[in-house]
């Protein structure tokens, strides 16, 4: 499957938030989306997920304009994990993960073994089986985030779009999630603030600034002292990690 934004533009209140972005999701592996607050990362991910309509350009799914495809068909193939996902408070964790199966089920379908396996597997992948019956409203911020990721995994998508999925997680769960994403068969686009994470776990990185993608490439070409100074306005030294040879950022105090 291919997912491609071509010259995608989106405005709100006369402000151009996403400005002529052309970007393809990888078929496998992780594309990291980095850039300062307000540069348009979340907006772009929502456009690519088909949750918003472009006002210019188009999002293409297998070369066809996605906006014309039935929503359920799109949802079978693309999962989106929002930065601050909310859900009905009366649900348990398991109920929320089960929602990920909705695009695969007809109105009259019973709950199948495949549905159950997908839900159990997704809970296990984020280490949340022990909280399956707990009310969603009582989960911690990080636990909610892991459950939302499990919902997306239960969807068994071909492409996952994740908006800062590590922002509530402790170091161990950040690392576990990024390792998990690397192991998935699907292609992933992930908005990240942590440049070290982007450098260590992503196969490619796209840099956004003021609504535009200004650079794309492998981490060692993108995570540079010059890029960090010009895009983020911060002085930094970029080292190479001993274990992987990937860039590692030391910010100047
Ligand atoms: N529905 C909206 N109404 C008004 N302004 C909006 C709306 N959606 C986005 N914006 C504005 O568009 C800009 C880009 O927002 P977006 O959430 O896409 O940025 P971001 O790169 O994900 O930021 P962050 O790193 O802070 O999460 C921001 O200035 C935001 O205030």
From TrEMBL:
Coiled-coil zones: none
InterPro entries: AAA+_ATPase, ABC_transporter-like_ATP-bd, ABC_transporter-like_CS, P-loop_NTPase
CDD domains, A to Z: ABC_Iron-Siderophores_B12_Hemin
N-terminal signal peptide: none
Molecular function in Gene Ontology: ATP binding
Domain ABC transporter: 3-235
Pfam families given in the database record: ABC_tran
Keywords: ATP-binding, Nucleotide-binding
Protein name in the entry: ABC transporter ATP-binding protein
């Amino acid at each position: 499957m291919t997912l491609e934004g071509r010259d995608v533009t989106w405005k709100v209140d006369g402000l151009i938030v996403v400005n002529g972005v052309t970007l393809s999701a990888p078929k496998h592996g992780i594309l990291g989306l980095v850039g300062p607050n307000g540069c348009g990362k979340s907006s772009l991910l929502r456009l690519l997920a088909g949750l918003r309509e472009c006002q210019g350009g188009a999002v293409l799914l297998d070369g066809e304009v996605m906006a014309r495809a039935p929503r359920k068909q799109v949802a079978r193939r693309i999962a989106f994990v929002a930065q601050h996902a909310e859900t009905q408070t009366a649900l348990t964790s398991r109920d929320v993960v089960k929602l990920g199966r909705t695009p695969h089920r007809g109105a009259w379908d019973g709950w199948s073994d495949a549905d159950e396996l997908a839900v159990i597997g997704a809970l296990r992948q984020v280490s949340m089986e022990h909280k399956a019956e707990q009310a969603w409203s009582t989960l911690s911020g990080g636990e909610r985030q892991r459950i939302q990721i499990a919902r997306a995994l239960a969807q068994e998508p071909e492409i996952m779009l994740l908006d800062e999925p590590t922002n509530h997680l402790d170091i161990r769960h950040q690392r576990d999630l990024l390792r998990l994403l690397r192991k998935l068969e699907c292609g992933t686009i992930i908005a990240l603030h942590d440049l070290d994470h982007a450098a260590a776990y992503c196969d490619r990185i796209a840099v956004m600034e003021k609504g535009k993608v200004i650079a794309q490439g492998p981490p060692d070409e993108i995570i540079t002292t010059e890029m960090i100074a010009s895009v983020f306005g911060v002085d930094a030294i970029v080292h190479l990690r001993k274990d992987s040879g990937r860039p590692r950022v030391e910010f100047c105090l």
